[in-house]
Design goal:
single chain, alpha+beta, Beta-Lactamase, Heat Shock Protein 90, 3 domains, five-stranded antiparallel beta sheet, 12 strands
């Protein structure tokens, strides 16, 4: 079997990934915006050229000299002047023609060959390729029909170079490019400020976390010191008193009572054993196990613990019963820590059980977790204590140290599990330990 692996992504990497994702998203948005702006600029420029060509054709078709029929030389001069005046304003104008019955009455070719355009209704728009020497010039041709006073129909034809669209587009693109650059600068500045702010917040949070851990360590050290003083003061006083009484008894010489000396010696040994037990509890508390998590058969572990405490249960007149599935239940945990947690909880159940009582240990699994329930038939947990039963130095048993259940909770939580306590309706307490199952593989 293969154990469950827990991956922890550092906050720095997570934040950097978030910022990078936002930067990529913003870059993609700006790129799309640039493409859309380019298309809009091209469409706007094309519409501008079309409108401009229609306006020129309409204006020339409405010239008085065209309406009267261009009868005199003065009419032709006036029309040519109007054409040149428009050509001076609109650099993209290529030529202007007046056609009547497929006969060209007027045609003026502009010397320039460069520039841009806008809209109308009765103006015909077409394309033409004008050959000028060895060069072919693509044109947009606008034809405006008009009727002279003599009733004859004439066509005023205006041609604009197609590259006028590009020139119109370039001016629009320059404006859009400036807006794009401004947007890009704004986004970069915003990301720079955001990144600096995130780095500052992360450093501040890291400092706070470091100070919090230091404060927790100091508080824990102070709590350990207080616990040591609390739990060693009474045994030390008792030990001192027993030693004084033993010395006085020995000083009596031949009149000393051997049974009294034996009693005091036994009491001193018992006190030192208790002090050793307290010392070992504090040692386990202050020095977490360095053993790595491994696959652990919980059922087998419980059976080994029950074999270990069997003499104790037998002496107390308490029966231990295990209910476990036939198939092994494998968890990912630190073996020594879980064994200690189970030993403390099972021993606690025995200590609160009356002679003739039963301690039931029930093992089950489901939902990716294993559950161990330890049920006793004792007095239960006092309501005023509740979940504080797992706090350090909290004990309802006379002479109890108040570290066993605290150490059990610490060990289970270090393995990614949890422990809870509740009173049973029929009497007694139920302690439930849950641990993550090892991944099958």
């Amino acid at each position: 079997m293969r154990g469950i692996r827990h991956f922890h992504v550092p906050l720095t990497v997570l934040t950097a990934g978030l910022v990078a994702g936002m930067a990529i998203l913003a870059g993609g948005f700006l790129f799309a915006l640039h493409r859309i702006h380019g298309q809009m600029a091209h469409e706007t420029a094309a519409l501008s050229v079309l409108q401009k060509g229609r306006n020129i054709a309409r204006q020339l078709a409405a010239e008085r000299s065209v309406e009267v029929g261009l009868k005199s030389e003065e009419d032709w001069r006036d029309f040519a002047t109007a054409v040149r005046r428009i050509a001076g304003i609109e650099q993209g104008l290529q030529y202007v023609s007046v056609v009547e019955d497929d006969v060209t009455l007027f045609h003026e070719q502009m010397k320039r060959q460069d520039n841009p355009a806008e809209s109308g209704s009765d103006i015909l728009v077409g394309r033409k390729l004008l050959q000028s020497g060895d060069t072919n010039i693509p044109l947009l041709v606008f034809t405006a029909p008009c009727r002279a006073e003599d009733g004859r129909e004439r066509m005023v034809e205006v041609a604009l170079r197609r590259d006028t669209v590009g020139e119109e587009e370039s001016s629009a693109m320059m404006a859009l490019g400036s807006m794009f650059k401004l947007s890009l600068i704004t986004v970069i500045a915003a990301f720079g400020i955001s990144t600096a702010l995130i780095v500052w917040l992360m450093r501040r949070e890291a400092g706070r976390e470091r100070r919090r851990r230091e404060e927790e360590h100091l508080a824990f050290a102070g709590m350990l010191a207080n616990g040591i003083v609390h739990d060693f003061r009474n045994p030390m006083s008792s030990l001192k008193l027993d030693a004084q009484m033993l010395r006085r008894e020995v000083d009596k010489g031949a009149s000393s009572r051997r049974e009294r000396i034996a009693e005091l010696s036994e009491h001193i040994c018992s006190t030192t054993d208790r002090m050793e037990k307290v010392f070992q509890e504090f040692l386990h508390l202050s020095r977490p196990a360095a053993e790595p998590p491994s696959n652990l058969d919980v059922g087998r572990c419980i059976r080994e613990i029950l074999d270990l405490v069997a003499p104790r249960f037998e002496h107390a007149g308490v029966k231990a019963v295990l209910e476990a599935p036939e198939k092994p239940v494998i968890v990912k945990a630190t073996s020594a820590a879980i064994r200690r947690a189970l030993l403390n909880v099972i021993t606690n159940a025995e200590q609160f059980s009356k002679s003739g009582g039963t301690v039931l240990i029930r093992l089950s699994c489901g939902g990716g977790r294993a559950a161990v329930e330890v049920l006793d038939e004792g007095p239960g947990i006092p309501p005023e204590i509740g979940e504080r039963i797992f706090d350090m130095f909290v004990s309802t048993r006379p002479g109890g140290i108040g570290l066993g259940l605290f150490l059990a909770k610490t060990a289970v939580e270090q393995c990614g599990g949890a422990i809870h306590a509740r009173n049973r309706p029929e009497g007694g307490a139920c302690f439930t330990l849950t641990l993550p199952l090892a991944e099958e593989g």
